[in-house]
Amino acid sequence: MATIIGGIGTSHVPTIGLAYDRGKQDDPAWAPLFKGYEPVAQWLADKRADVLVFFYNDHCTTFFFDLYPTFAIGIGESFPIADEGGGARQLPPLRGDVALQAHIAESLVNDEFDLAVFQDKPIDHGCTSPLPLMWPHRPDWPGTIVPIAINVLQYPLPTGRRCYKLGQAVRRAIESYPEDLRVVIVGTGGLSHQIHGERTGFNDEEWDRTFLDLLERDPEQLAELKHAEYVRRGGAESVEQIMWLSMRGALGPAVKRVHLNYYLGMTTAMTVTVYEEAV
């Protein structure tokens, strides 16, 4: 059967993609970020990951507010990389495994998650800004993607608890898939940041560190927090952290963090973590 071999939490700031595309890996302002992803890329290579399941949010690229689903899964052999105003990126389309994606969709619906399903839609920086830092892409990606979009833009949002349960349901779906695949779960977004209003530029490193600690050892505490508490502690956009809860829910009860890079040099703490299940 398919097996979950670990999880990754990562920021998905759009400027990561712009900096990568413009070759700023050694720029002093960017080097601490890019260096932090090198161990992640090595870990994925060592683990021989076949599939990355991405919990991410769409930034009005695939969907818009006139029809914005709470949860949506992409099913298709490929997905184009969205042009978000910076020009077409020199990345190959994301590869999909239709049989696996369809199995996860059916399993989630039978597990009482009412999903929207999309195909042939572009995927934006919520997924693609960190991806080339972790996975080689020339001439093509080494494996396939299962994109699962979560609404963190238009209220009412799913609760942290609901996102945590979504991750648990995805685990059940993956473990019931008969093909021998090595699967990594990725949760994107956050951490503390706000990009509009009176608190524009707000960050809270203490909250970020607390969140990362609880995510590893006591995610139940985080699942109980209301959206207002995430916003108060981390800024309006830090509610994206509920997508990290989906990643954590797909892992076992006990995990160990094997890598962390935290770089508060931009509008948000650009963070990447790697988790393995504790034996």
Write up this protein.
The protein has 279 residues and is an alpha/beta fold. The chain has a single domain (3-277), classed as Protocatechuate 4,5-dioxygenase, Chain B (3-Layer(aba) Sandwich). The protein has helices spanning 14-21, 31-47, 98-110, 125-128, 131-134, 160-175, 205-217, 219-224, 227-234, 242-249, and strands spanning 3-10, 51-56, 71-74, 78-79, 94-95, 116-118, 144-150, 182-188, 255-263, 270-277. The strands form two sheets. Strands 6-3-7-2-8-1-10-9 form an eight-stranded mixed beta sheet, sandwiched between helices. The protein has a two-stranded antiparallel ribbon with strand order 4-5. A hairpin with a 6-residue loop joins strand 9 (255-263) and strand 10. It is globular and about 50 Å long.
Summarize the model shown.
The chain is built from ten helices and ten strands. It is an alpha/beta fold and 279 residues long. Pfam families: LigB (PF02900).
